[in-house]
Amino acid sequence: MNILASRSSRAWPWWLGLGLIWLLCTLTDRLWLRLDQRLPAWDQAEYLNTAVDHGRALGLLAGGGWQGWGALLDLSPKIPPLASLVNGSVMAFSGDSPDEASWALAIWQLLLLVVVACWGRQLGGPSFGLLAAALVCLAPAMAALRVDFTLDLPLTATALLALWRLGCWCAPAPQGGRWSQALTAAAAVAAAVMVKQSALLVLLPPCLWAAGTGLRQPGRRLQVGAALALVLAVAFPWLKHNWITTIGGTNRAVLESGAAEGDPSPFSLASLFWYPKLWPAQLGAPMLTAGAAGAALAGWRRWRAPAASPQDQGSGPPEESGSTGSGWGWLLGCAIAGWLFTSLSPNKDARYIAPVLPLLVMVLARGWWVLLLAARSRFGHRLGVALLGAGLLGTGAATAAGRTSELQPRAKAPVPEIVNLLRQRVGNAPTTVVVIPTTADVNQHNVSSFGRLGGGQLLGRESGKQEREHGLVLQQAQWLLLASGDQGTKRKESRRLSRSVRSDGRFSLVRSWPWSRDRQLELWQRRPDAPAAVPFDARFIALARGLEQGPAGLGAVFDAIGPEHQLEGHFLYQERVRAWAESQLNSNPADREALWSLALLEVLQNRPAAAAQRFERLEAVDPTNPWPSAYRAVVLLADWRPWQAAAVAEAARLRHDEPVLAGLMHVAGSLGGDLRRIPGTRAAVEAAIASVEERIEGGAKEGR
Question: What is the domain-level CATH number for residue 430?
């Protein structure tokens, strides 16, 4: 008891110090948010909206309610949901405005500081841990992330937690190899992956190394298996439900965005040195200078005295572990691997390297520590600490000075005022406004963010970026936000659509607001005496029935769905179509229009099991048509049931001479482990693709 009491008495001042670092950091961030009035940009506003979605789905925020786990999985089709679940829960207490929601970032920052401080304490003692935590707060890039509502700070915090716990487990026994370490490491890995898939860029090499190390040790093999099972148990439900949309979203965000931004090829020297060129700005000149000076001093001392005397041993952090798991070798290995694998990403936004930055800060902190010990031995303890304090203040001042230029004391765009006026007109009725300009401060996402405050149901949607959509916008839109001058992306098409709205007698100007660079923002409304917009219901039913034509009808469906969803962001037509279809089936169970409509609804709502049942019913109703079987095989594959998909395609192939069925049979069979199907898969897929392309082209010609 006395030992425990003694440890507790020594621990609480350290935790108090760490708490004060976090508190000072948080107060600084709140001041910044108060001074900086810029509106959330594209990604920031989208993550705010996603957090609101999850908070409402949990029943914590106004405008929502608990609808079950299935509905919750629907809310994160491209990005894993953990950060949004946490952020949405915090917003239940803090509020859902952008500044209020940023309290969630303070929670993630607390986790990051705890991990850095504890890891640093393990490497170099309690004081070194606090120094590392303070330097992480002062790094310019990390300071920016604390007030930037993206997933990068949650990703950094959870990924660093995973790396630290993995390192502890990899350490030789008795320090490492414990069940508690294995399970906490696995939980942290799962958490990081469920924040963002890109966590694998930082975690995969250390995880493979740790697994390989553990499998070579009989006492740890079971722990490796249990850890893997835990990660899969956490991640698999979301991945199973959203794997198709995740692949599509990753392709757009990584491959297409990287190509559009002109980022270097992943396997080029330019790619390899892309992020190191950013580190001086991300870490700050004072931090880099002091860290490098300390490292040089330590190297010089070791060169002069290879066999260090006891008085010279203070040139490095005390309590330093030389083990693979908990020592500096593990940390450096994680930093290098994270840098190399992140460099392989085609999209190289500066913030994507964030999980590696705290590791680099800890390496630099070692140099700072060397300088502190040298100053203390030469000038005394008090002066040494004073010099350290001066260094920290100077670093903080440099970071603050560098970030001051980014301050925006006034919002450039009057989006909140526009949304407030619109909400006065429509109340809490589900409303969609077409946002034609697309800029950092005026875009569909931040219109939605302000439109949903306090349980609001106003959504911003982007449409009209392609000229073929302009007619549909003019026919269907109820509210539009236009701009004069520079429209952001797709300028030519946006200006053309804006001119069409202004000259169209179906719309009237509600009000205009001054914007930046002599531009105006204009809110337009469909006139009460104009022809009412035609609901999507009837067209949807016709398009769904067109699916029985195979690829020719499928192309028409997806050409229409995207623009229609932009104009009706709440998808209210789906409820009406479902009610109509179920009513039709009550009177006629073989009603093809109703069955096709319900099947398409299940596909759009990501319900592959329910869609398979609808297509199976259509197989029975229309046995001469090969396409219900083909669609059924596809949705079974989407539901991770390749064996059933192969059986369906094979049975249908016996009845119909259709190349698509043959391709599905080979692909599904190969994925299900049927080795007989592998040799013929390539040829079958090529024939299926050629057949689909020919039919789509023929359908397009018929449409013209």
Answer: 3.40.190
Identify whether residues 546 and 671 lie together within a single domain. yes
Distance CA 546, CA 627 (A): 11
Residues 650-653: contacts with CB under 8 Å, at least 24 apart: 652/619, 652/626
Last residue of a domain, one of 526, 552, 585: 526
pLDDT in tens, 385-395: 898 999 999 99
Same domain, 680 and 561: yes
Question: Tokens 């031995």 sit at which residue?
Answer: 377
pLDDT at 700 over 90: no
Q: Are 146 and 127 in contact (CB under 8 A)?
A: no
- Supply the range of the domain harboring residue 518: 415-526
* Polymer length in residues for the chain: 704
pTM of this structure: 0.91
Model confidence band, residue 307 (pLDDT cutoffs 50, 70, 90) = low
Torsion of CA 548, 554, 557, 559, to 10 degrees: -160
Pairwise CA distance, residues 684 & 687, whole Å: 5
Quick one: pLDDT at residue 556? 87
Domain stops at, among 482, 500, 526:
526
Q: Give residue for tokens 């920290």.
A: 392
Report the C-alpha gap between 174 and 170 in whole angstroms.
11
Q: What pLDDT, on the 0 to 100 scale, is given for residue 317?
A: 44
Give yes or no for a contact between 414 and 440, defined as CB atoms under 8 angstroms apart.
no
Name residue 553's amino acid.
G
Q: What is the C-alpha separation between 4 and 288, in angstroms, rounded?
A: 40
CA–CA gap between residue 134 and residue 598 (Å, rounded): 57
pLDDT tens column, 567-594: 989 999 999 999 999 999 999 999 999 9
Cα–Cα dist 691/552, whole Å: 11
Residue 251 has pLDDT above 70, yes or no: no
Report helix angle 381-404 to 357-379, nearest 10.
140
The CA distance from 554 to 563, in Å, is 15
Q: Please count the structural domains in the chain.
A: 2
Distance CA 333, CA 337 (A): 6
Q: Are 487 and 498 in contact (CB under 8 A)?
A: yes
Half-sphere exposure of 274 (CA within 13 A, CB side): 26
Report the pLDDT value the prediction gives residue 655, as an integer from 0 to 100: 93
Least confident of 5-9, 241-245, 442-446: 5-9
Mean per-residue pLDDT over the chain, rounded: 90
User: How much is the average pLDDT of 101-128?
Assistant: 96
Q: For residue 116, give both structure tokens.
A: 């850095």
Shared domain for 501 and 563, answered yes or no, is no
Determine the Cα–Cα distance for residues 256 and 443; give it in Å rounded to an integer: 20
Residue 18 identity: L
